Amino acid sequence: MQNSAINDRPNSYKSREYSLWKKMIERCNDKGDNPRRQPYRDCTVSKNFMRLSFFYDWCNSQVGFGLESYQLDKDLLVKGNREYHPDKCVFLPREINLFLRSKKKSRGEFLVGVSKRKDGYGYGSQLSINGKIKYLGTFSTEIDAFQAYKIAKELQAKRLAEKYKFAIDARAYNELIAYIVDIND
Q1: What pLDDT digit, counting tens, does each position of 58-106 carry?
Q2: Total domains in the fold of the chain
Q3: Which letter does DSSP use for residue 106 in this model?
Q4: Which range marks the domain in which residue 110 is found?
């Protein structure tokens, strides 16, 4: 980090903007084996966001910045996005950010939202809503279980969009309303 970047705003090294900026840079540069950092392994930071002064001003112009429990998100506006960029990031309530997280690596061999029942009779489907697991049912095929998950997840995205309609960026609202779960997610 360059000192000029840190000192280009009054007390910026003590600010929330600086803390977010530093964590973003660290996540993208961490090449260690920490499992919590694995989702960020291939992430990059745009040239503009590398400058604290730009990031500082950008944060202060964003809907939701500074509100308690709002988090910097890079995944909603551009599906599969791997770059922290001013046009690809928004601030979202923690509830939405958790809802959007993918557990691809921990789910095993089945489609998203699906698991094989331990008793061997079919497939179970479940969805995490605000940290609580909602069991969606038992199905005879993996595809049927996935369809139940898809419907529930897309409906929950719309509920969250409406709940936070006036507290999130309009782009985030529109993405949640149009949210689609793909079989390859």
Answers
A1: 999 999 999 999 999 999 999 889 999 999 999 999 999 999 887 665 5
A2: 1
A3: G
A4: 94-185
